[in-house]
Design brief:
Radius of gyration: 22 Å
Low-confidence stretches: none
Number of strands: 0
Helix content: over 70%
Mean pLDDT: 87
Shape: globular
Strand content: under 5%
Number of helices: 7
Largest sheet: none
Number of domains: 2
Length: 252
């Protein structure tokens, strides 16, 4: 696919320093004059725009006369907060900054493909994998912080209630531990493939119909793209809440 205009501009400005940095750490780009791929350029643009946007919201915070943008952000915050409260429990507020950042990043990244000249970075498998890895390590770290290393490992060996027969308590960890390990590793694949497959398919379907019928029918698929973007963001954040709730639960 041809390089996007913004990627071309970014490479024109930063190609030299980026190529030099990549060479220093042992990565030799295939195209030294264009080392920044489209999905990285889209993320750079996205983070820059979101940073400016939230600086504006922060500078205009008002209790008496909130702006429309403030209402939108507060609504999103309350939605994610309610989701976290229902799934994670009373400690959910500690995780809201991450969940909000994750949700806003994913939603805007999913919707970027609707803007002519841009594409959704989540339609590239590297970006969903990155979000999945960060989420995976985040909930593992939170589980260790909340329960301690030994307490967190107890999540992997099944119930150890004294009322359970001793022979069952001895055999259960042997069976449960490898199953739990594979289950946690499978979450990386599940989070990545679900988001990537849906966004890639949505972009491809829209692109095909735009090439066949420039007007009319493609608008329907743009609407579907918006719906899929919201649904996939919701599912990703929902699963992050579920994993956090499981990891930080205190075993009795």
């Amino acid at each position: 696919m041809p390089e996007l205009l913004f990627s071309r501009i970014l490479n024109g400005i930063l190609a030299g320093p980026v190529t030099g940095l990549l060479n220093v750490i042992g990565i030799h780009p295939r195209h030294p004059d264009a080392p920044i791929p489209d999905h990285v350029a889209m993320q750079f643009l996205l983070v820059t725009v979101l940073t400016i946007l939230f600086l504006i919201v922060r500078s205009q915070l008002s209790v008496e006369n909130p702006s429309g943008l403030q209402h939108v952000v507060e609504g999103a915050y309350n939605f994610v907060g309610n989701l976290g409260h229902e799934i994670i429990g009373h400690d959910y507020k500690a995780f809201l900054p991450y969940l909000m950042a994750l949700g806003i990043f994913l939603l805007t990244a999913n919707l970027m493909g609707l803007i002519p000249g841009l594409e959704s970075p989540t339609a590239n498998p590297v970006v969903p994998l990155g979000c999945a890895l960060v989420t995976w390590f985040y909930y593992q770290a939170q589980g260790i912080l909340k329960n301690g290393p030994i307490g967190y490992l107890k999540h992997f060996i099944g119930p150890q209630d004294p009322n359970i027969p001793l022979i069952v308590r001895l055999i259960l960890p042997v069976l449960m531990f490898p199953i739990e390990i594979f289950s946690h590793l499978a979450r990386l694949l599940s989070l990545t493939v679900r988001l990537y497959a849906n966004m890639f398919a949505g972009e491809m379907v829209t692109l095909v119909f735009f090439s066949l019928v420039p007007l009319g029918i493609p608008v329907i698929f743009e609407g579907l793209h918006i719906g899929v973007s919201f649904i996939q963001t919701y599912i990703f954040v929902l699963l992050a809440c579920v994993y956090l709730g499981e990891a930080t639960a205190h075993e009795h």
